[in-house]
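Lab manual, section 2.4: Encoding a predicted structure.

Procedure: take the sequence of the chain (196 residues), apply the prediction step described in section 2.3, and record the output as structure tokens. A sample record is shown.
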Amino acid sequence: MEWIVITSPDFLPGEAFFIDKLFGCGLDLLHFRKPGAPIEACRNLLNEIPKRWHNRIVTHEHFALASEYGLHGVHLNRRNPIAPDGYTGSISCSCHSLEEVIANKPQRAYVFLSPIFNSISKAGYEAAFPASRLQQAAADGIIDGKVIALGGVTANNIPLLKEWHFGGAAFLGDVWSRISHPDVDEYLKTLRLLTQ
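Recorded output:
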């Protein structure tokens, strides 16, 4: 499975330090999502992240940053639905129904499907798919290696995601809710559990 972390929508103290640690623990990709943030603020954070990780970052905002920093790709969503003309890097997108997955998967490197479980970071954002529907979608080949589960994903529900044939897991709330932990070693231990 592929392991993806989406940044907190807000800038956090020490964020670049924790992003570096995430990659060091086996993270495959970081989705840089800062809705409404000015491009200079995004550049400031990217400048703090070691350059060796830039080619494993996907931006949701300010697509010009992809070429400027040699990022892995761009992620299309409701705010930014169109990739730059002639863009040849990875293009992914967000889906909120199986029908959207069917429509978008052939043209994208991968797609997010959400919410799979009740959200940790968004109150009231509840799972949208019964287990039986996900099992059938896996059997039908709709959910496969190009579909990444998002929404309420924790280490505890990874076995279910594997059973449903998801190609990866995207973490948000479960990762960023832990950075206030005063023991960095304990934080890193938790991150390693996520990527096993």
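Check your result against the sample. The mean pLDDT is 90.
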